Amino acid sequence: MDFTFVSGNVGLDLAGTVGHRRGARIDMLATPGDLARWTLAAGLLDASPEVSADDLAGALALREAIYRLATAARTGAPFDPADRETLNRAAATAPVGVLLGEHGLERRGDLRAALSTAARAAAELVGGPQAGLIRECEAAPCTRLYVDTSHRRTRRWCDMRGCGNRAKAAAFRARGKTTH
Question: Tell me: the pLDDT tens digits for 79-103?
Fold first, then answer.
């Protein structure tokens, strides 16, 4: 399974590992191996971490807490204390170590460090000045959250190549049906 990184925040990208949240959910982190692959694809680590079933369960709890916290920030709702605790516990762990190696950038750490890095990014987003830029993709059935950094803050889709293209093509087809 290919992972998508279009949210503009690694914490939201972790939350985006569930597709179609209000319909037939698609979980991209179904196994410990999926989570290990995600940490590499996200660019958090250079080497695949060891991931147990318990590690996966903790990561999924973090993922859901990030989603709910980002949704609360987006809608102006209060943060759930249990979600804040889940996020803060993950963020309190030392993040990924970034070093300049002989051949360039090196990212070192274990799964906990990778999840800490994602949790810290999410905390900075939902608790900081960019919280008001969190949006949800308007393309049905997508439920991905993203940071709208467009010039006019009018971005409607998580990704123009995927959801945006499908929405525009559907609108074009719908216009064609009404003119004939």
Answer: 999 999 999 999 999 999 999 999 9
- Return d(Cα 16, Cα 63) in angstroms, integer: 8
CB 114 within 8 A of CB 47: no
Picking from 80, 7, 87, the residue whose alpha carbon sits closest to that of residue 18 is 7
* Distance from C-alpha of 114 to C-alpha of 49, rounded to nearest angstrom: 9
Q: How far apart are CA 148 and CA 96, in angstroms?
A: 26
Q: Residue length, the chain? A: 180
Cis peptide before 141 (omega within 30 of 0): yes
Q: How many CA atoms lie within 13 A of 8 on its CB side?
A: 22
Give the other-Cβ count within 10 Å of 79's Cβ: 15
pTM over 0.85: yes
- Structure tokens belonging to residue 42: 């996200």
Q: Name the superfamily (CATH) of residues 10-179.
A: Jann2411-like domain (1.10.3300.10)
Listed by start position, the domains of the chain span 10-179
∠ CA(79), CA(81), CA(82), 5° rounding? 120
